[in-house]
Write a structure and sequence with these properties.
The protein is of the alpha+beta class. It has one domain. The protein is built from 2 helices and 6 strands. It has helices spanning 28-34, 91-113, and strands at residues 3-9, 12-22, 43-45, 52-56, 59-68, 71-80. The protein has a 6-stranded antiparallel beta sheet, sandwiched between helices. A hairpin with a 2-residue loop joins strand 4 (52-56) and strand 5 (59-68). The radius of gyration is 13 Å and the shape is globular. The two termini are 20 Å apart. 29% of the residues are buried.
């Protein structure tokens, strides 16, 4: 079951977050590079509670261990900006995305994984 949430700013996407449950591990860096997400310049990172994460100039994708309803992983994507448009994409934006995720993930795990 996929869940999505988007925040619009001035009638355009500002932030979009999607959650999917999966029963197996995925290579998030490969997915970030090869999927329709089209994340710009994704690189592996580390954040507590996350098994694997790729953080890009314009978003991130992560796989979080999460046992619930027979599934074992929560795959979460974060995208900044309007799909199909160039984002500002900078080191500063990448750092801001990572900082946001460091605060967001513990609450996400409590809500979606019961932990």
């Amino acid at each position: 079951m996929s869940e999505r949430c988007s925040v619009d700013v001035d009638g355009r996407y500002g932030l979009s977050i999607a959650h999917d449950r999966d029963s197996g591990r995925i290579d998030v860096l490969e997915f970030a590079r090869e999927s329709s997400l089209e994340l710009k310049n994704p690189k592996s990172g580390t954040i507590d509670m996350v098994e694997s994460i790729a953080i890009a100039d314009d978003g991130a994708i992560m796989s979080i261990p999460c046992r619930r309803n027979g599934e074992t992983y929560l795959v979460t994507t974060v995208k900044v900006g309007t799909p199909g448009e160039d984002s500002e994409g900078s080191t500063g934006q990448r750092k801001a995305i990572e900082e946001f995720l460091r605060f967001y993930i513990p609450e996400l795990v409590k809500l979606k994984c019961g932990g």
